[in-house]
């Protein structure tokens, strides 16, 4: 169990659980602990985490604002593919893990640590996402996953350990949370305990980042999003950096009851689980990006992307961001986005994202060709006959030898 | 041009355009015309079509109610795949064409006709869908596509021909319609003319089958849908035949502002076009089916279906329903649906379809395994370490020879 | 370690290693051992295995001839897909494992055993193939994998255990084999030890089932294979059962130096390994089946199969024969084979399999259409213009807005 | 028919057929003809083509050596994907067409021509490949395809036209060739007439570029090929430019009876056709590249490429080299080839290409990990158990609710 470890970089939130882990690492491994706390837009202050770490005698404390990196280098590339896991999930948790792991490994290299540790449990996907990323970036690193190792297997034992080691316990942490939450600039997820029965709807208290469609205003909000090369760059004409832009979309989405998802999904570790996701800005962004592509992307380029999207989503969900196959797919996807530039107008109304217009200097939509009116020779209807005849040829040859209607 | 044709079966709606075609076939080809009018739930009376055909001297007139066939043998199989063309379109027009063509060919065999004719234009997808189906079912059939052949290239010429041949012109058909409409039990589509600019939202008058989310009631409607083997069989506990069930869902969707789509899509014939689709019942059905699958379908079964869905959708959109590859994919899809049985509860509210529960006697969701609580040994967290280690092995070997982070 | 086990069914070859396992199970688990020895055409006598098992006090001994089952229900279905793992490997070992596991589980049910055991090591794919099959067929079974559990980690320790427990050691088993072998009716594989360096060619002594191309006769052997519905049924006009047919092809292949493969492949457990495979009959069968399909299978049916073959091969290689996704793909593949009926003629010559003719009552090859000669109107060359024009339309629209040459 | 054309660039071989086309263009269209003759390694002298063109009064004559461009920018990129159409065809003709078209369009821009013409027939794939490339590069170009337009529908009429227009007819061109040939540095293809019956083997006289396996030497030739970044750069240690390298491989293949293929394939225009292909160097190169990848490419990178290869091959075969989707796939493929560097050794013997060794500074093959011997902790066999258990979990959960053996 207790491998020989000298210095470990811990992904540290400052909360009770990772504080227990911090102390547990110190006592069990007898090693120096370096803490790393990241701002990914989860909406919590980070300074308390620093102070707590100091209190535990941690000498090297890293607190980093990674919000722009997160959105620019992880969220936006993922949205270029219109990525949805199992047709619905915008991968808000999955896409944050590789960045945390990446920075953790950078810190490990910087401070000469031989190990990294995280607070994910042994039943979830996050352990896989963290650890695959660690190993891909630093193959000889020692990984410590306390939840798979220790004997603090109940809340009672955890609290006892905390008390024994002078770890402050907030009053509201005495009892168990009725469900567990993960949050960052892209989304907020809730799962476990009171949410475990998929036959029951979530209680309204579960939602943290959106008001309900019912509570949203009776008047729609109209917005315009500008894209350059597949990524959003401005809202209502105002240029915004990646994190600021996503934050603005979150605000707009929240206010209009947009982005709730109640999902039963399939975990990489083999079981089904149920999650409640709130992705207000991401839901708007997906609709906007799809519509931007609808006039700027070639048909076969789009269909090729669509056919590979499920695989790409699966890779991110399963934790393979830092893999050759994800990089290869990204190269394919990115190649398609050069001309995905222009403006999409949307109406946000009580949970709905309704497109009201798309325009682009690179538009492939050609009114002359498509029109029901006279087109001045832009399209020769006679060509359609040859097109159909040759597309039908193999079906006719098949039918002629008795395989009617495409019977194989 | 005027091939030698003795008897032609015309897909006849009774409207002005197909009435002109009817007469044009008689005069141009000098052949006998058999009319075929199908009820696919488009919501029009068919008897006027019969009377008009009689008026034109047609001797063999077929008027068929194909609604249950349509939903059972075409719509439901398509929904088993959660089919969306280009991520959004529920294929309401595409899925109706092969059935019309199939019945047309059956009639041709029955009455000994050597030709079939349709009223689709030379720029659209429907001509392809009709004709590929014709050829796949009767490879030696002669296909007449008047819109590609005749010189009635303007509204004025068409009306002149109608007048010259005593074809009655309804008053509201004198002027040109501001857009063109197709409808059946699954959807209503509108396109062309005033809808051609994708930068502008559709006018409210375009919508025929749904009220707007804004006009929908302030109180949600709660429903339950039962599935057996992948297909819906009952609403709120009431067993319904295929067509009745879809009609009921349409009613529920309409009343709650559900199922509008404003889309720029890529046609098989090569250009982009813009359509406004209303698929109230189908939108509800898709959400329900996905949720039913979420607890009953194996992960890899679902992912395999998801990865092939874009191809399957493309085949239907392009008109290849009667092809070996569509049949092969259908076999794969159908094989997965055995256990997709149970009940899904939904809340319909102002454009939103919100799942509120799913349950199934065949559920793969196992609370014992997934729970954050003690699971009594249902899942050994230690297994996760080996799982991660072996999944990481190739990434570590790569990183060890200098390919850090999955660099290929 | 030593879980509570009452009765275990061991996949038993009668060789030294599985004999040690047999005894080790008896002594370590103190449980009753049932042996199961299968004839899959590996070319060894099975009666010695029975006698040895008796000697160890085994009361329930199963010795089954599974050759026809193996070829009919596993090998032939796989060949319907022209299956090659990583473009080259005919999966001879992979396809045998699920059948062994299936029979083992049947026996476990029959004799009321609560566990199964196999002799595969902890680094290979076979452990995965066995165990995934076990679990898929009997989810509560206890699996014992001695090579992952015991401390007989060296040859010396293994031999010491054997001596201590009166296990007879054949003289030629005293030293270590220079490489390890697996064999069945489809193939023979060799790997390990002297074969581990992929920079060196295998020594000629490695080959067991084929003579070298150099040693093969200077005169070609001509054969004809008949197919019905995708499976071979006769050689040179003589109808043969599945196993007899494959045995005959093996004989023909061996004599002509056909079917050797020197491969570095990627294991499911994460590392690369090197294997020498001999699949004489399978190599002939693949060539024959492909050629049979070439005149009987629709283009898109074939392309769809081709595009899914790598996934199907991966599933079999990784051990997922008994999985929903393999069954779904099989349904798709099988649907395509109805008309794959006819005769293929081949010439076998010094490692080459050369097709010399294919004919079929269901042939889609139509001389009238393809001919360079006058075709009497079977194909209208003018159709090609429309076909090209519409296929080019999107590329032209792209080029017209500055995306020349298909630049995205 | 005779569109208004001022100046046309003709792909001109100097042979009888394209000479007739040259004159026919001059007389039918009354336009200036510019000839373009390319050396793609077809093995014919080009100066006679120049002289003939002069004889016909052509003022602008282009004769270009494109061999290195062909191999470097078209053949090698294609081989990076291990491309095979329908599992067998190395696409020798298909890959040459886009280059010819590209240069033709460049010349058209250069000389101010408004049209291009080619000598491909209306039944084949080449017309599609030429024209899709033309349109993708110059969307407003006029394309003239004489074989689809003129009335020289028989050999007699063609010869009569030639005589009438003083086109010299070589004696051996009086009669019709018994089959038609296309050749370039990658391959030689033969089809038509005496080759049309797929039930009969080709006569030995058909083969132009290879001796038969039977005629090849009794002693094998051993060679080594070096790769850098996925492309071959040297043979037997001698660095060679792209064209010289392929020419050398052709020589080696020819001498050893390597690279013959007798194929029934599916044309894009809808029918099956039969071709005899000789690709001696390409066959060696494919085997070498695959083996180079086998030790340098990550497993999932390789599987991803394999799964997309059929689509990539189809695009090239169908003529979509200059399309967004081909460029996207190329980006994915190229991204994977960085580390495909090293040496492969092969033995060429009577039609066989047998690998005898592979080595690379970037090898992912790790003897420590794979070995059957003690591995010093490089791989922990216990990890396999967790790996299997979690991979099995969904199958076990399925079986537990009655879906035994992966029944969906």
From TrEMBL, chains A, B, C, D:
Cell location: Cytoplasm
Chemical reaction(s) catalysed: L-citrulline + L-aspartate + ATP = 2-(N(omega)-L-arginino)succinate + AMP + diphosphate + H(+)
Keywords from the named record: Amino-acid biosynthesis, Arginine biosynthesis, ATP-binding, Cytoplasm, Ligase, Nucleotide-binding
Protein's pathway: Amino-acid biosynthesis; L-arginine biosynthesis; L-arginine from L-ornithine and carbamoyl phosphate: step 2/3
Binding residues annotated for ATP, in chain numbering: 11-19, 38, 119
InterPro entries: Arginosuc_syn_C (IPR048268), Arginosuc_syn_N (IPR048267), Arginosuc_synth (IPR001518), Arginosuc_synth_CS (IPR018223), Arginosuc_synth_type_1_subfam (IPR023434), AS_cat/multimer_dom_body (IPR024074), Rossmann-like_a/b/a_fold (IPR014729)
Enzyme class: ligase
Positions of the Arginosuccinate synthase-like N-terminal domain: 7-168
Residues the entry annotates as binding L-aspartate: 121, 125-126
EC number of the protein: 6.3.4.5
Main location: cytoplasm
Stretches assigned to coiled coil: none
Domain Arginosuccinate synthase C-terminal: 179-396
Gene Ontology molecular-function annotations: argininosuccinate synthase activity
Keyword Protease among UniProt keywords: no
Binding-site residues, L-citrulline: 89, 94, 125, 129, 180, 189, 265, 277
Family annotation (PANTHER family): ARGININOSUCCINATE SYNTHASE
Family: Belongs to the argininosuccinate synthase family. Type 1 subfamily.
The protein's assembly and partners: Homotetramer.
UniProt name for this protein: Argininosuccinate synthase
Native source organism of the sequence: Rhizosaccharibacter radicis
